[in-house]
Amino acid sequence: MSSHREAPEISKDPVADSTDLYAFVSPDDPSTVTLIANYIPLQAPDGGPNFYEFGDDILYEIHIDNDGDGDADISYQFRFSTVNNIPSSFLYNDGPITSLTPPSATSNWNRQQTYTLTRLNRSYPDGRGWGSDPVVLGSGLLCPPCNIGPLSTPNYPTLAAAAIHSLQAGSFSAKVFAGQRAEGFYVDLGAVFDLGDLRPFAGDHAGAAMAGLMNGMPGVNSTAAVNVHTIALQIPINQLTRQTVRGVTDPAAVIGIWTTASRQRAAISFEDHHVAVGPWHQVSRLGNPLVNEVIIGIGDKDAWNRSAPSSDGQRFFEYFAQPLLAKLLPDLYPGVFPNLAAYNNVSTHTRPDIEAILLTGLPPGAIPGFTNYNGTGVKADQLRLNTAIPPAATPSNLGLLGGDLAGYPNGRRVFDDVATIELRAIAGATLPLVETTYTADGAAGAVSFGLTGGGGDRTALGTEHYLSSFPYLGTPYGGYSNPSKTPVSVGS
Q1: Which residues contact 357 (CB under 8 A, 6 or more apart)?
Q2: What is the pLDDT averaged over residues 16-45?
Q3: At CA 288, angle to CA 283 and CA 294, rounded to 5?
Q4: Burial 107-141 (b: 16+ CB within 10 A, else e)
Q5: 85 CB contacts (<8 Å, ≥6 apart)?
Q6: What stretch of H or E contains 35?
Q7: CA nearest 182: which of 489, 470, 466, 490?
Q8: Cis omega before residue 49 (within 30°)?
Q9: Contact 135, 121 (CB under 8 A)
Q10: Distance of CA 446 to the CA centre of its chain
Q11: ∠ CA(372), CA(2), CA(390), 5° rounding?
Q12: What is the pLDDT of residues 254-277, one digit of tens each?
């Protein structure tokens, strides 16, 4: 999965597990960028009586690097607080929740959360005078409840809409939402972790005869009908870039984004009290999708989650330079990837395309009219977004591979088929962009998980999965009427 249970330690700490990160120029307001960080993976909609919630003892952050040095220039920090309005009740709610109101002993809603949003601004060398003092954009902000069912949370979209807050503090502004949403990421986990069993090529797998595999079996959306907890921000572009942007080729147009979750060094529990003390230490991070999942080796996964992006070019670079899955594909599918096999057999060959996509951004000229290279060459896993590229009129969920400059790896939209995009890149489809003498295997452009087909785009699936405006991820699935599966992609 994009970053669900991707490392041994964080798989035991789901409330701090960052599952997906999105960043895109907002279609509903192109003067802004939308940033979305999801946490708490694989939520069963009927998972009561203790339904899912953010951790009061966790510092959730979304970071922006706007000068390409690999370090955060701006951080948005979220701290949550939970109140038991009806401590004697074992239920999440003792009656219908029909509106969002501050915590109160008279409320039908028992387990209620609010949060504080703070912007931390680092100093700039250009004399604009921003310091490191935090700016509190809002406090006591209301989260919506989980989607329990039609009796407990009637007209859920109205409840969720009331949890969208518009904030202003001095020269800074933000639109923010924090609460449960429908999972937007889709992938066929059963296939990919079954020794890379790619359904369109299943019959060509080295183990196909033994397993009785056949081509053409439909893909299975492994993240169907589950929910996540979302932190979403919509920020004016000029509050995120280091200076006024002069166009697509201006390095200042590119920002790097990642999200982290941190816990304090010590936790003490006694009777009915839990106290956390000491400095914060990072336990989870996420920039590009699937990096810790399928790039970083298992012995380094926990260390990667605890590290900063600025260390990626030294400590973890070997994983990006020669990704293991790229080496395995020709062996798993004999004869299907001959060009990739020949390239892999040259010991000095690395993967500059993977390095560019995940660590530095694509340089000008690799794709006509596009770059998300920030001009420094610092290697750091960040989701890089060129803020000067407007939303696409006719988006493709294959992003740049589908001819859509506004899609992944130019940031990431909620409907982008990042699993297919990255798998095709690993298979060599993007290598000719930076190694002009290399010819990609025909199979590289056809690799998929069986969830992407012709005829339309996943965005057309509508409000049951995605919204056309902030916060973009759809209404969470309710426990009473939980569907057997979410719609699969039909994007081009």
Answers
A1: 288, 409, 422, 425, 430
A2: 94
A3: 80
A4: bbbbbbbbbebbbbbbeeeeeeeeeeeeeebbeeb
A5: 103, 104, 105, 107, 109, 110, 111, 112
A6: strand 32-43
A7: 466
A8: yes
A9: yes
A10: 24
A11: 30
A12: 999 999 999 987 777 666 666 777
Q: Cβ contacts of residue 344 below 8 Å, gap of 6+? A: 326, 327, 330
| Residue 127 clears pLDDT 60, i.e. is over it | no
* The token pair that represents 177 in the structure block: 């939402």
pLDDT of residue 358 exceeding 80, the answer is: yes
* Beta sheet of 32-43, edge-to-edge order: 18-25, 32-43, 227-236, 172-182, 165-169
Residue with tokens 């605890």: 306
Give the pLDDT confidence score for residue 336 in this predicted structure: 93
Going by their DSSP bridges, the two strands 254-270 and 383-386 should be labelled as antiparallel
Reply yes or no: is the peptide bond before residue 409 cis, omega within 30 of 0.
Answer: yes
pLDDT tens digits, 157-174: 999 999 999 999 999 999
- Residue 348 neighbours by CB distance under 10 Å: 4
Residue 209 reports pLDDT greater than 90: no
Q: Please check the confidence at residue 365 and state whether its pLDDT lies above 80.
A: yes
Bond into 471 cis (ω within 30):
yes
Q: What are phi and psi of 253, to 5 degrees?
A: -75, -15
Q: What backbone torsions phi and psi does residue 327 show, to the nearest 5 degrees? A: -75, -35
Select from 239, 169, 146 the least CA-distant residue to 475.
146
Domain ranges of the chain: 10-187+223-464
**What gap in Å lies between CA 180 and CA 144, rounded to an integer?**
7
The DSSP secondary structure of 176-196, one letter per residue, reads: EEEEEEE------HHHHTTTS
Q: Averaged over 216-243, what is the pLDDT?
A: 88
Can you give the pLDDT at residue 131?
52
Length of the chain, in residues: 492
Is 215 strand, coil or helix? coil
% of the chain exceeding 70 in pLDDT = 88
DSSP 291-343: HHHHTS-GGGHHHHHHS-GGGHHHHSHHHHHS-HHHHHHHHHSTTT-HHHHHH
CA angle 65, 68, 72 (to 5 degrees): 25
**Element spanning 58, H or E:** strand 58-65
* Model pLDDT, residue 489: 40
Long-range contacts of 270-276 (CB under 8 A, 24+ apart): 274/57, 276/57
